[in-house]
Amino acid sequence: MEEFTRFSFLLRGLIIGFSIAAPVGPIGVLCIRRTLAEGRISGFITGLGAATADAIYGAIAGFGLTFISNILISQQIWLRLIGGGFLCYLGLKTFLTSPSKEAASTKGKGLTRAYVSTFFLTLTNPMTILSFAAIFAGLGVGSMGGGYIPAGLLVAGVFIGSALWWLLLSNGVGLLGKKFNLTGLRWTNRISGIIIIAFGVLALLSLKG
Fold it and tell me: In terms of Cα–Cα distance, which of 61, 26, 21, 44 is closest to 201?
């Protein structure tokens, strides 16, 4: 019975991670664009950066690390400013990038850069920690005996669920990407760049609120 209960926490974490990752925001647009331009591995690694940040925020909320949580929330103006500015930079760079006639390298620095960029973008979104705090409080993790084990399973589930979404998205886009020619990739870059810039501008405008 205890093993079933523990499995249920892992399953709930998986559903939470998948649900939080699934809405197509700036990370989703980046994943799609990089999959089309650089291949499925680059697209998946892009999403994996976000999944790692989700797991970190999930751990902060799940283990009740209120000190760290309060610091992040108190600095949310700076986080939004940095994140919004970085989104605008990424969007402009994407818009101006010309598609290569040859497949881009999916090794070394390219994959590291893909991972770090989305990891950073997800960490600079203060709404992520608030979302996890609300969800985990609703699940009553902190009020349970031996709460560290349920919290740990939830965090593991969050990472697996989020990673699963990015795996499905990058592979799905990769299959469709075979139909894209250079003109299609050029328009993908332009449209993706405009969308990412829009997300960045919205993040900066939210500072007035």
Answer: 26
Looking at this protein, which amino acid is placed at residue 52?
T
DSSP characters over 22-83: -S-SHHHHHHHHHHHHH-HHHHHHHHHHHHHHHHHHHHHHHTT-HHHHHHHHHTHHHHHHHH
| Alpha carbon distances (Å) from 89 to 58, 69, 187, 193, 203 | 28, 27, 18, 9, 13
Please identify every stretch of the chain with a pLDDT value under 50, giving residue numbers as ranges.
101-106, 143-145
Q: Measured between alpha carbons, how far is 144 from 93 in angstroms, rounded to an integer?
A: 48
Average pLDDT of the chain, as a whole number: 79
Q: For residue 70, how far is the Cα from the chain centroid?
A: 21
Q: What is the pLDDT of residue 46?
A: 93
Q: Which residue range(s) make up the domain with 8?
A: 2-208
What does the DSSP 8-state code read for residue 206?
G
DSSP string, 129-162: HHHHHHHHHHHT-TTSTTTHHHHHHHHHHHHHHH
**pLDDT at residue 103, rounded to an integer:** 45
Put simply, whether the predicted model's pTM sits higher than 0.85 gets the answer no
Whose tokens are 């031996």? That residue is 146
Q: Give me 162's structure tokens.
A: 């989020």
